[in-house]
């Protein structure tokens, strides 16, 4: 598992595999799609904005005219959208992997509610919990994998999702960090539950270090940072990397055949570097936190993961 010979610029041949990526319209999600498509995978780019999806698809096609890609509307903060997208994917068939990447990265100053839930929790956590549950059967049928996106911030700040909706004490940073602690905890909890139910699906977590758009090459319609952003981001060059490089850990977690369920991948130098096995923050590994959070997600989304049906789909 601690192999160092993984080459993110030379992925295994992924011909015949299908991956779905949330938040594929820019940032890490876009570059993950580009890397997967370049390795021959069929990639379903999802996003909440149809125009941005068109731009992202065109950009992947410009870099790789033979790319096997399609687009699908999916707003992770909207349960109706999640269910509709999942139904479309189930109807289309094969699914080898899910990259649960979409996220509110700069939360609003004041607490906002969408569909009855705090916006950051709804977008970063609930939508992904529901999507992974809704797609468990096709994932199991392909003996596939799901990757949740965490953050190194969870090792630095002790914000835990004990009050996931942040009814009291909302701050933008707290909402963000605890949403990432939640995705990490759910990733680890999902892997344990999948194993316990004999479902042949792996759940992993990955984090991209510190990846900024100003350190990322320009891509028309996808990454067009202002001069000021480029200037500011370049001041932080020693501790940052491009989003293209940040996507490496996410992609490795998704496709490295030797990766184990329950593992975490992140950059070798924590904030940047080649993808390596990483260690989730101790606080995100607390099983009582995971159990409470799982119940909260089930209640909020009305989604119960169909473990038994998924196991049967795989046999
Ligand atoms: N960059 C980093 O250093 C860093 C560090 C740690 C963790 N992460 C995590 O990595 C993931 C991607 O971050 P990023 O840096 O690539 O951010 P980004 O450039 O802001 O991209 C975020 C993506 O998520 C999408 N998104 C936001 N809300 C959505 C919704 N309701 N439904 C569907 N898609 C939605 C955005 O779509 P639109 O184009 O429609 O806005 C965009 O495609 C996030 O989960 C973030 O927490 C990033």
Mind sketching the topology for me?
Blueprint: E1 18-21, H1 27-38, E2 42-47, H2 50-63, E3 68-73, H3 79-92, E4 97-100, E5 113-114, E6 117-118, H4 119-134, H5 136-141, E7 145-149, H6 153-156, H7 172-196, E8 202-206, E9 211-212, H8 227-235, E10 241-242, H9 243-255, E11 264-267, E12 275-278, H10 287-301, H11 307-314
Parallel strand pairs: 1-2, 1-4, 2-3, 4-7, 7-8, 8-11, 9-10
Antiparallel strand pairs: 5-6, 11-12
Overall description:
The two termini are 27 Å apart. Helix 4 runs parallel beside helix 7 and helix 7 packs across helix 10. The strands form three sheets. The chain has an eight-stranded mixed beta sheet with strand order 3-2-1-4-7-8-11-12, with helices on both faces. The chain has a two-stranded antiparallel ribbon with strand order 5-6. It has a single domain, classed as Rossmann fold (3-Layer(aba) Sandwich). Helix 8 links the parallel strand 9 and strand 10. Helix content is 43%, strand content 15%. The longest helix is centred in the middle third of the chain and has 25 residues. The site of NADP nicotinamide-adenine-dinucleotide phosphate (NAP) has 30 residues, from helix 1, helix 4 and helix 9.
Order of helices and strands: EHEHEHEEEHHEHHEEHEHEEHH
Mean pLDDT score: 95
CATH topology tier name: Rossmann fold
Estimate the strand proportion. Answer: 5-15%
Major beta sheet, specifics? Answer: 8 strands, mixed
